[in-house]
Amino acid sequence: MDIGCFFLFPSHLLTFADGRSLLVSPCLSDQQELRLTERDATELRVQEVEEENRQLRLQLSQSQAAAAQVQYGSYGNAQWAASADPGPEDGENTAEERANRTDCPQRPMVERCELIHVACVCAGHNASRDVVTLVKSILFHRRNPLHFHFITDAVAHQILSSLFQSWMVPSVQVSFYDAEELKSNVAWIPNKHYSGIYGLMKLTLTKALPSNLTKVIVLDTDITFATDIAELWAIFRKFTDKQAIGLVENQSDWYLGNLWKNHKPWPALGRGFNTGVILLLLERLRRIGWEQMWRLTAERELMSMLSTSLADQDIFNAFIKQNPVLVHQLPCFWNVQLSDHTRSEQCYTEVSDLKVIHWNSPKKLRVKNKHVEFFRNLYLTFLEYDGNLLRRELFGCPSQPSADSLRLQNALEELDEDDQCYDFRRERIALHRLHLYFLQYQYIPAEDDTDVTLVAQLSIDRLQMLEAICNHWEGPISLALYMSDAEAQQFLRYAQASDVLKHRKNIGYHIVYKEGQFYPVNLLRNIALRQANTPYVFLTDVDFLPMYGLYSYLRKSIVQLDLAHTKNALVVPAFETLRYRLSFPKSKAELLSMLDMGTLYTFRYHVWTKGHAPTNYAKWRTATTAYKVEWEADFEPYVVVRRDCPEYDQRFVGFGWNKVSHIMELDAQEYDFVVLPNAFMIHMPHAPSFDISKFRSSSSYRHCLTTLKEEFHQDLSRKYGAAALKYLTAERNI
Amino acid sequence: MDIGCFFLFPSHLLTFADGRSLLVSPCLSDQQELRLTERDATELRVQEVEEENRQLRLQLSQSQAAAAQVQYGSYGNAQWAASADPGPEDGENTAEERANRTDCPQRPMVERCELIHVACVCAGHNASRDVVTLVKSILFHRRNPLHFHFITDAVAHQILSSLFQSWMVPSVQVSFYDAEELKSNVAWIPNKHYSGIYGLMKLTLTKALPSNLTKVIVLDTDITFATDIAELWAIFRKFTDKQAIGLVENQSDWYLGNLWKNHKPWPALGRGFNTGVILLLLERLRRIGWEQMWRLTAERELMSMLSTSLADQDIFNAFIKQNPVLVHQLPCFWNVQLSDHTRSEQCYTEVSDLKVIHWNSPKKLRVKNKHVEFFRNLYLTFLEYDGNLLRRELFGCPSQPSADSLRLQNALEELDEDDQCYDFRRERIALHRLHLYFLQYQYIPAEDDTDVTLVAQLSIDRLQMLEAICNHWEGPISLALYMSDAEAQQFLRYAQASDVLKHRKNIGYHIVYKEGQFYPVNLLRNIALRQANTPYVFLTDVDFLPMYGLYSYLRKSIVQLDLAHTKNALVVPAFETLRYRLSFPKSKAELLSMLDMGTLYTFRYHVWTKGHAPTNYAKWRTATTAYKVEWEADFEPYVVVRRDCPEYDQRFVGFGWNKVSHIMELDAQEYDFVVLPNAFMIHMPHAPSFDISKFRSSSSYRHCLTTLKEEFHQDLSRKYGAAALKYLTAERNI
Description:
Two copies of one chain form a homodimer.
Chain A: E1 12-15, E2 21-24, H1 38-69, H2 78-83, H3 90-101, E3 116-122, H4 124-141, E4 146-152, H5 154-167, E5 172-178, H6 179-182, H7 205-208, E6 216-219, E7 223-225, H8 229-233, E8 245-249, E9 273-280, H9 282-288, H10 290-305, H11 312-322, E10 327-329, E11 336-337, E12 356-358, H12 372-383, H13 403-414, H14 422-429, E13 434-435, E14 452-459, H15 465-472, E15 477-483, H16 485-497, H17 499-502, E16 507-513, H18 521-530, E17 536-539, E18 544-546, H19 550-560, E19 568-572, E20 574-576, H20 588-597, E21 601-602, H21 617-622, E22 627-629, E23 638-642, H22 658-668, E24 672-675, E25 681-683, H23 690-696, H24 699-720, H25 725-733
Parallel strand pairs in A: 3-4, 3-6, 4-5, 8-10, 11-12, 14-15, 14-17, 15-16, 19-24, 20-25
Antiparallel strand pairs in A: 1-2, 6-9, 7-12, 8-9, 13-16, 17-23, 18-25, 19-23, 20-21, 22-24
Helix pairs in contact in A: 4-5, 10-11
């Protein structure tokens, strides 16, 4: 009988003396049961062990070549080695290095489905972007449930909480801790490092994280994982009963204090340790009074050092120099530090050695290293990786889905897959992954409460419109950008290189990650609308250029027409040019003469006059005061309203009826449409988008749009009663 | 002393009785040598074995849950088990399954840097696309040098050889074998499977592959790897001395012969084996006379079966039924078969079990399976993965770089990184990854030798121009498309959905994968030009629409102006509209009247008159016969020339001087520019591309362009002597 059979027909549990159980079963095809004695099982174990032995010997012979090539891990400095714990467990550290070398991973050291905790300090827009790449690299390799603990400022909290909520990765929990509340613990420490006060925040983790959390992996945001994080987590089991902090030695000479004349670093054991990757045994640290201990160390050293240079790392190292027994040194491939002139190359000889890459130079990807192309490729892999693909289920580890994901599942199950409009209905309930405030954003609210945000949405093929819009509108802008992960990076490079965009801080860029086959236009509008931070919004499209001065004119009109206390929707009349090169009219007079010359037209004059006919362009030509117009079927003007206006109906995706339905709902809620006599906007020509040409020709698309319209009407009647019947009648009369 | 130390300071070799060697060394930091007796070593081994034991028990306890959940691998059919080799090695197969289960991979079973051989039969455009995704999934996980052996038709050979040559992945060799030459070995077998004759080609591998190749992994093109292929390669070592073919059992019931009434499959052991993944021990097969053996089996079965239904798989199974000892059954996760209604779910309980996914249903990604979303995500990961990122070096396994890659390295080293125009110069020598004939292509050469190909290049933002161009030009087209891997998939979906494009087979689509920061316009033009399969080419840009009938008019003009025997460049006069919606002129007369009305202009009339001034539009208005014009500085007409015309100068990237330099070279080679009196083309308006707006504003860009121009002039003088001085003078006079 063969031991491998255990896994074939499990039917019996055999309990060993040590309390472990072994599942055994017969391999015979006749399925006859076979009772095993404990002795039998032991014999089987011996057989198995011998097989292991055989493999082991093979590994040994193979490792000769590798071992001969590099003295693996041999640059650990003698000074530290001398002061480290010389106890019996010390050997395990090197045994583990051996295990890594021979590629039989620590994985078995982690329980199946064991929850792994990761903590990260993250503040501001840039770190919030960086941390996503770290998270992707962890998720890509992981096979265990994860719990991320983020210490965040308000900005990172908003960004990451909405990101994870919309990401809905199975078996991933996320908790946030307010850095503001923790600041007082470290604010007293003068720090010269570019990370500022957040660089010191890791010192507070024993206090910040829940008191029942016993251990955690702490990571900087500029880390990339090249392996399953469970392998790192497994190292906690190698800690001796005195060790509490797992760290990798620094790969630069900073703490040796010989970099330049008068270079006086904080005290450290030899090269010191890098705090980009830390295994923190929280329960032990709490027990020994870590909080008081590091504080005393810091206070004493600051008397001569005056401030920290490398933030938390200085304090960790000074602390460790005094308490070396607390440290468990990790093999250096757990934190390959890619600054210029580091010894990082000595951490790995083969691709398979690489575990964690740390971009800890301010130069980041432009750092010099023999294998930097390799590292860059790994980094770019995750930077541009479609995060939606990481939503894959950890089957084998059942998990409680989030409320959102349950709602989505239920909604999906209610859909009929054979429905001709299934794709449309599915789109309506889709939850797109969301990265709010992708770039730096700073908006100081206007004092007079008249401020208005331009609200629009776009995909990458309209990006070149942004600079032009910025030149025409100096006020705040809220944009939803529909992009893939790779496109978001393209956008980032574009915005950082643009003279117009890079200094402009009052634009909120909200990335909605692509998913499904339709452009979810109304979802995008709602996201941009929700993120507007002013009392009023100008609901427009990205292929329009507002007249110069529209921003200030709107603010004046908002006061004049008392938008605060009325239900007015201010209509900005829309025009269009079919010419690519347009000299933009400087005034209403100039616009009117261009209209007369045929250089400009009223918007969609040629193809869809109804959309803007109620604006009454004839009246507008001579109007000097605002005038009210009546709603008519298919009216879809661009309007300025209070931010608390109804949202867009997300059932309309792709093209058709997306604005019409919104204007209809404004009318149902008894908004008045008031045309502004001195405002205008002009539609700029562009090639038809991919999507529009794809669907314009499709009869099933038109059929579904009709179905959706009917359902919208029904919903409207339900919501607004008999009054809403007028929309159905108006529609039928057309 | 800890056994793990062996790997830290290797210095001694210890030889065991069985001839194996063990490398031992002291762990002591004092580096004192320590001589070990064989007995010591055995004791160490015992310690090590005990440590292994400890881990093993942990694994065992962990696997209980999994084992209880699913009868892992338990559907192996009794019939086969009974007839399989019952020898002592048989146990290893299941032991290996156990090893896989517990995640301690077979990797140590493969020598460090051992070369792994993979064979694939690949024919036609679609399979050539599919196989790239397979190759990417292998490259992504691999840590060993690879040698791919492709049995190809002419189409796949052209596509894959240029792809791999331009891909330049370190430590990857590629060989091609002509399927045409092998056809006679299998052409006599009637086959009903959709794969046609190529489906049978795997039977010929012992003959097709080099006689010194001893073993190979054979894969279908619809396979995705989720793990390092070395793990699969390692299983060769588990073969008994009788086994020669490693296979996974079928996960469908096809061979059970009970799918429908009168369903009579070929003979097989139980469910039979799937041939999507095969380990072929070539040397053994050759020795036992495999070629004659399968042939005899096939001949005998065909007498009653008449034809194969599942191609090679039927013959493999009939053969195996007669020779079961030759088979080594692989654990079924090495070929998880995703057809509808398969038992594939029984092959894995956890994500980590998944090794190889086989999309062996004609439905491909639309197949039904509980975890299909997971599988799809994995597939999409590689489908859209940036193949350039796989160029990463296998450091640790030194390899001989290809000639191209050496040339590139040398060229790169010659560049000065501090040169202000470094990026430009780098771009010039860049070798972009290339996928020729990305879609179905079939061109039947015209008999009269007057045929002309429209040659152009584009990026994804100009894709919507393609349909319009197709409507204006019925002749052959050669297009270079500059795209990322993900964009190429977007393009594929677009083309497959387009009524205009999907039936059009005379367009060669050549994907040039994105790399670097400039649009390599002249490289793209050269690639499209080289792939033109007609004696003449019309060198144009994708934002122009040719007049209706231009194709036949050009063919007539080619004869009339004797392009075959003269050095003429026929100029097609270019016009432009600034209006997005244009009613395209049906004739020269209509065009002239639109010119007079101001609806059309001569091309770049407003911004760059010089580019086309020498065309002499005034003369053209009334011309009825072709007329010769003289070259002038900055002339950049669109021309028809023989295909053997000079190539474009690839130093010009991005925007500026890319056509000018080409026309200059035509003039230097004494081409005559002859304007066609009844041809015209019209530039359609579009928003400026991303790149152009990025660079138009850059002064360093303009500076570098000037530098490149000067260098081009110098090269021209070198090449064409004093005569070329006129270009420099002309340039200066402007």
